[in-house]
Amino acid sequence: MTPPTVVDNAVPQGRVQSTPMVTFEGVTKRYGDAANPFVALDGVDMTVGRGAITGIIGRSGAGKSTLIRLVNGLEKASDGRVVVDGTEVGQLNETGLRGLRREVGMIFQHFNLLSSRTAFDNIALPLEIAGFDPAAIKAKVVPLLDLVGLGDKSASYPSELSGGQKQRVGIARALATSPKLLLSDEATSALDPETTQSILALLKQINAELGLTVLLITHEMEVVKTIASHVAVIDKGRIVEQGPTFDIFTAPRHETTRILLSSTVGTNLPEWLRTGLKAAPSAGDRILVRLTFFGATAFQPLTAQLVTEIGGNVNILAGAIEEIAGEPFGTLVVAYPATPDVLARADRFYAATGLSTEVLGYVA
Amino acid sequence: MSPDMLFDLLWKSLLQTLHMVAVSGLVGSLIGLPIGIFLATSGKNELFPAPALNQAIGLVVNAARSTPFIILVVAIIPFTRLLTGTSIGTTAAIVPLTIATVPFFARLVEAAIREVDKGLIEAARAMGATPMQIVFKVLLAEARPSILLAFTMTIVSLIGYSAMVGAVGGGGLGDLGIRYGYQRFMPEVMLAVVVVLIVLVQLVQSAGDALARRFDKRNRKS
Fold first, then answer.
1. Its topology with respect to the membrane (chain B) (predicted)?
2. Which A residues, 10 through 69, put their C-beta within 8 Å of a C-beta on chain B?
3. Residue B220 within a domain
């Protein structure tokens, strides 16, 4: 593997998380005219940590494409400030913007490679644009081809490459001018799950080796869960929740986050169980509880203890253990009789072990 | 007519046609290319936004394209005379042919450039490219196969148009066909002219197709 020499301004480990790479302050974006305005972004406040991988997740039409395009000035904010590494994007003229864009790489859902250029020449394009001479271009492009694992595809045209290979070319192209920030616009949304994982692994590797800050937008929770250390959830032009990915995913506070998460994280109740669920208990009902394990509790044999504590009358309805932002996270849905003494014993057990619980309802 | 005479006439007329088509095709396309690029990039929110000028030029191009060629030939006689000193002959015929080529080729170039994926323009902007760099490094490079096909189509159309300039003594194959084949009742001349034209158009089209294919990397089989 090529040593990480392509980025000259790699951030030393100690400075990670100091001043943010990108700050959005009260950013609003309106399209259309005064009579017929469409508000794409509505007072967005957000920071993107230096050296981190930050994900912005939302459904289509939530405003995430607009948000990421404000960072390199492809779109202009109607109100508010977007600051990239100390520079306010809105204050830059065209020349200033072009300078900024050479320090901010971008990759796209549909790769946006030139069909008339080989892999090598596609990666060379941003360098040609920046005025590098052929020798300097070659010295930059060859290691980049190796970095993305396409050393043997230098002379291939995009039509001769698979989707994953095209995105690798796109990534190498985005890194050509040694940017300090990489913007990823749904970079894996056109790829199959296996290829998605390999591209995410590459982004993670680049982030670690080059100290490159990555800001990605996606509608796939899986992407955020796999590589983002921080996440912001956007809905109808507003950031509804942001923070470390693990915290947001294990304890979502906003409805949109819950809906986005329901298919990815933890366990879903089977249909037959959900339809029979009641909000209040009647005599003889069983209580349904979702237990969440993370950190230290993820590795303890708590299920066995729970069964012992409550007295054997527990059944397990669903469960899963997964990894979120590199940390183990488990969920278990259990049911036991909703009688006062059992509930009291269970609560004592939860309090003693620090398990986090959520009562889902009652079933007959 | 003896075969030698027929061959002589055909050869002379073919050279006149080639002369007219080559000069008007090259000059007309060279003028039409930048106009086509402008038409494709000067709309609202495009690379060189100038919607008013875009519409004005679009209007002129449409007007020129909807004027029947034979009327254009006659209508611009004063201009032709100003430029070439005469209004008859092969050189004079080049003027209306060139003028007809410009809007024709410009519209084809515009269409070819508009076919280029908008995502490529965005990617180039995100790299910090200037609008000019986007035109030369992205749009023209990506549209090259289509532009080559457009040029081929222009040349083929010009071969057809050049048959009409016989009306102003332009000479060429079409003129030969009308004067000998039709007016002097010599069907063998007419047949020979048609055969030569068919072969000529075939050659131009095949050459254009081959060239366009050479530059088209969009559907390459590895």
1. Multi-pass membrane protein
2. none
3. no
